[in-house]
């Protein structure tokens, strides 16, 4: 039985009268790519932020490797192996790609043995930033900028990487490269939790998906099964997804 790395139990987030996340139970299991999908405003980003302590839950608990971590500071959680990168955080000032990665590497938890696959030149090659190392981060095209955001998150040597809409705005080629990178990360032992609207990407890449609707968990399971579920078609997909040969 695989280890549950991260557990959200009854995670509830209120913004005034709005219940953005409503008593959601969710597990992220070591070694998987877990997708969180659902309509706009269904609470996916809010759930990710609650799980990663960026915006802790109003009610319910978050557990990391069985220990309650609800409300912990983001940097403390990162030192324990949980890091979140959101598309909006992946913006940098006047530093080069090389400098940004060096800064991130210097912030990694010193207590942890360095995973060489996620450090130095191997990290640069892994995230495909070799060609732009001396470019200013602020000059990068979106595809590279996302890779840098992921590279910075990886420099913290996470066991679990949570990603909020990493494919938003990427073209087909960039999305394929992103998928290859995330599959490689899983092979290297980094567990991934991802929110995204690109259903072709999510269905082809995720081991499991959780579907949210109006803040509540609607369905969870293997993507090929979930996308055929009439509740998911009604709430999110509209029409059944076409089967790929
Ligand atoms: N900081 C906030 N203050 C007030 N309301 C918020 C805040 N953040 C999110 N919400 C609201 O909570 C609900 C869930 O938002 P959330 O961004 O989590 O949904 P989502 O499923 O990620 O949507 P999308 O797919 O459009 O990104 C929405 O009604 C949103 O307007």
TrEMBL record:
Species assigned in the record: Acrocarpospora pleiomorpha
User: Which UniProt keyword terms apply here?
Assistant: ATP-binding, Nucleotide-binding, Transport
According to the lineage, what is the superkingdom?
Bacteria
Q: What Pfam families does this protein's entry cite?
A: ABC_tran (PF00005), BCA_ABC_TP_C (PF12399)
Q: Which residues form the ABC transporter domain?
A: 6-239
MF terms per GO, please?
A: ATP binding; ATP hydrolysis activity
> What cellular component GO annotations does this protein have?
plasma membrane
The record ties this protein, via InterPro entries, to:
AAA+_ATPase, ABC_AA/LPS_Transport, ABC_transporter-like_ATP-bd, BCA_ABC_TP_C, P-loop_NTPase
The record, for Gene3D superfamilies, names: P-loop containing nucleotide triphosphate hydrolases (3.40.50.300)
Could you identify this protein by its name? Answer: ABC transporter ATP-binding protein
